[in-house]
From TrEMBL, chain A:
InterPro entries: ABC_transp_permease, LivM-like. The chain crosses the membrane at residues 33-58, 70-98, 110-133, 140-157, 189-207, 238-259, 265-284, 291-309, 321-341. The keyword Signal does not apply. Its main location: membrane. It is found in: Cell membrane. One of its GO terms (cellular component) is plasma membrane. Keywords: Cell membrane, Membrane, Transmembrane, Transmembrane helix. It is a multi-pass membrane protein. GO terms for molecular function: branched-chain amino acid transmembrane transporter activity. It comes from Bradyrhizobium guangzhouense. This is Branched-chain amino acid ABC transporter permease.
UniProtKB/TrEMBL annotation, chain B:
It is a multi-pass membrane protein. This is Branched-chain amino acid ABC transporter permease. Keywords: Amino-acid transport, Cell membrane, Membrane, Transmembrane, Transmembrane helix, Transport. It comes from the Bacteria. One of its GO terms (biological process) is amino acid transport.
């Protein structure tokens, strides 16, 4: 069937990501850029104030982690899922329902160390079930079905008052407070987010080289061949959804702690599409892509208004700017910012340096 | 039809029983016990008619969507934007000239033109690249949505129903019997019935055009095997442009209908994009009869659901989609 075939070709990077990943050992260990980024991220609280720390960097890391779960599915599994934000939102809702909040008749008041695993489990189950549904279809149909799931969840949270408290959502969700530290204070929270994001990043990077990840990439490239080799194609795909759901769920927990509230607005269809935009803009073939995309997105979202006003335009046209930027990226680079960067690197390198040798991208 | 009965006797029996029950519910005078159990008959009939007419509206949007996909494999996720654009154009025309009919014509022409531009400028460059088309049309829908928000603001617009269609009409369906023994008949807005009739006629005309005319034959051949059709000397790019114009124009017409039935505001584009997605997933991609069946099912589920189980109405729609996917992943009427 040509539909799925085409979709898969598009997802694979033109720079042949697969052989490079198989060839390298530990990722980025001898890449100075990666070390610099890591050190900057670690000492960030020393150089940034609370606003930048939370509104820019922690938000980037949270959105990036949700987009990372999409990147995992799309880049390694060939399945573009638009419901990753929905899973994160579901997990956030579950944290609010099982934990403590202002809505005493909904929240069960469990301590956070019980509520969070429960929420993560439920979110993983939810995402896996949605994935089991989505893998029945391929290519463009997967996008449509996951979009429909996301939309159904949004409208459901809007209408359901018994669990999700309708369109007002659940407010004043309690955040963890132990060992004498308020973990939602700016600096501790930043480190919590950083640790979670780093764990997710390295987990995805590890899985992509583990047998499961290699089999998943095989399924992406040629499902019939993998089936003939004895791999259960659908089981691998559903398992990929389970992993991605867990990652998205983790980000959802962080999000509800960050805003201390969750409402249908945070799981709206537009927000689901934003995650896709983030992943595509950053680059969908490597785990670092979603974080780059998230940084671009958050910076634009935060500063576009001021910027537009400064150059004499209406500040409300922020979404127009995002949409046009997204269009430009999709038109000119199928591999997002990373692809642009790699192309630039290649054009500025001596001819003798072959792509397989250099591994210091991004 | 007979083949379906032969192949699935159990399903056929269930369908026949369900149809019989619904017909009885529509035409019979309800016994008192039933009214106590599920509410008044007038409510039921209204929900039924609302569902069917909403299905007509969904069909107008989804048929264009599915036609474009079926022939060209073009995934146009900006289809909802075309709907909203048509609605705004229709509103502007009917507000300035006062002519409801004219607003349909202008909306059809303008959205068809936008569709042609989309086909020529965007889709022709990325033929066969589904994912890229999806991304680009998502980007376009964001840009369109913001441009329309810019131009029209966040207000709700409603297109004025023309005088000759205002007001309810009495249908020969008894909703209740008064204590004096005098029957009470159902009163229903005329405009919705007229529009539903129009969408049935449009659907039937499309079916006729696809199945009985030469251009329809070309289109169907293109759906099955584009390359061979091109090799036989048909100028397929022109066919593509025509079909895209028709599909987009239908979305524009649907926008005017939606603006008359309901209202126009930012966000409706996504709502109708999703509705057409669900409709064609249920009915089967690329199939006009499938779009009709899917639209009817989803419209009915939405309206009956919102009357009888208001909290879970959306979930019913979703469950239908899940059920169809589980039993027939290609959709109810798709040929495979």
């Amino acid at each position: 069937m040509s539909v799925t075939h085409d979709a898969r070709i598009q997802i694979r990077s033109p720079a042949s990501a697969a052989p490079r990943q198989a060839a390298r050992g530990w990722p980025d260990l001898n890449n100075p850029a990666a070390w610099i980024v890591a050190i900057i991220l670690l000492i960030m609280p020393l150089i940034a104030n609370g606003f930048f720390l939370i509104e820019i960097f922690a938000t980037t890391l949270m959105l990036g982690t949700i987009a990372l779960s999409l990147m995992f599915l799309a880049g390694y599994g060939g399945m573009v899922s638009l419901m990753q934000l929905t899973i994160a939102g579901f997990c956030a809702y579950m944290v609010a329902v099982f934990g403590t909040s202002d809505n005493a008749n909904i929240s069960l008041g469990w301590p956070w160390w019980l509520a969070v695993p429960m929420a993560l489990t439920l979110a993983t189950i939810f995402g896996t079930l949605g994935g089991a549904l989505a893998v029945r279809t391929e290519g463009i149909y997967t996008i449509m079905i996951t979009l429909a799931i996301g939309a159904a969840f949004y409208y459901f949270t809007n209408q359901n008052w018994a669990i999700f408290n309708g369109h007002t959502g659940i407010n004043n969700v309690a955040t963890p407070h132990f060992w004498g530290v308020d973990w939602r204070a700016d600096v501790p929270f930043y480190y919590v987010v950083l640790v979670v994001a780093a764990l997710c990043y390295f987990a995805v990077d590890y899985i992509s080289r583990a047998p499961f990840g290699l089999a998943l990439q095989g399924v992406r490239d040629n499902p019939r061949r993998m089936a003939a080799l004895g791999f259960n194609v659908n089981a691998h795909r559903v398992a990929a959804y389970a992993v991605a759901s867990f990652i998205a769920g983790l980000a959802g927990v962080l999000q509800v702690w960050n805003y201390r509230q969750i409402s249908p607005g945070s799981v709206s269809v537009g927000a689901c599409i934003d995650i896709l935009i983030i992943a595509i803009v950053g680059g969908i073939t490597r785990p670092i892509g979603p974080y780059i995309g998230a940084l671009v997105f958050v910076l634009l979202r935060t500063f576009a208004l001021d910027f537009l006003v400064k150059i004499g335009l209406d500040g409300n046209r922020f979404r127009l700017l995002i949409g046009l930027g997204f269009l430009a990226i999709v038109f000119w680079s199928s591999d997002g910012v990373i692809g642009l960067w790699q192309r630039w690197r290649r054009s500025h390198r001596p001819q003798s340096d072959r792509p397989g040798v250099g591994r210091g991208h991004g | 039809m007979t083949r379906f009965v032969e192949r699935h006797p159990a399903w056929a029996l269930i369908v026949i029983i369900a149809v019989a029950v619904v017909l009885w519910l529509i035409f019979a005078v309800w016994p008192p016990g039933l009214e106590d159990a599920i509410g008044r008959k007038r409510v039921f009939l209204n929900a039924l008619f609302n569902g069917i007419t909403l299905g007509g509206l969904y069909f107008l949007v989804a048929s264009g969507f599915t036609l474009i996909f079926g022939l060209m494999r073009n995934v146009n996720l900006a289809h909802g934007s075309l709907y909203l654009f048509g609605g705004y154009v229709g509103y502007a025309i009917s507000a300035s000239t006062g002519s409801w009919i004219l607003s349909f014509i202008v909306a059809f022409i303008l959205t068809a033109l936008v569709g042609v531009l989309l086909q020529v400028l965007v889709f022709r460059r990325m033929e066969g690249q589904d994912l890229r088309q999806t991304m680009v049309t998502i980007g376009l829908s964001i840009v369109f949505a913001d441009l329309m928000l810019w131009a029209c603001g966040g207000d709700f617009y409603q297109i004025q129903t023309p005088n000759w269609l205002i007001g309810p009409i009495e249908l020969p369906l008894i909703t209740a019997v008064k204590s004096s023994g005098e029957p009470v008949y159902l009163r229903y807005p005329l405009v919705r019935l007229v529009i539903f009739l129009a969408s049935v006629i449009i659907g039937f005309a499309m079916w006729l055009a696809l199945n009985r005319t030469r251009i329809g034959m070309i289109i169907r051949a293109g759906v099955d095997d584009r390359d061979i059709l091109a090799a036989t000397g048909v100028r397929i790019q022109i066919v593509f442009v025509l079909v895209f114009a028709l599909g987009a124009g239908l979305a524009g017409i649907a926008g005017v209908v939606g603006g008359t039935f309901q209202s126009l505001s930012p966000g409706e584009d996504i709502r109708f994009l999703l509705a057409s997605l669900v409709v064609v997933i249920v009915g089967g991609m690329g199939s006009i009869p499938g779009a009709a069946l899917g639209a009817l099912i989803i419209g009915l589920a939405e309206q009956l659901g919102s009357v009888y189980i208001p909290t879970y109405a959306i979930v019913v729609t979703f469950l239908i989609m899940v059920l169809v996917l589980a039993l027939r992943p290609q959709g109810l009427l798709a040929r495979r």
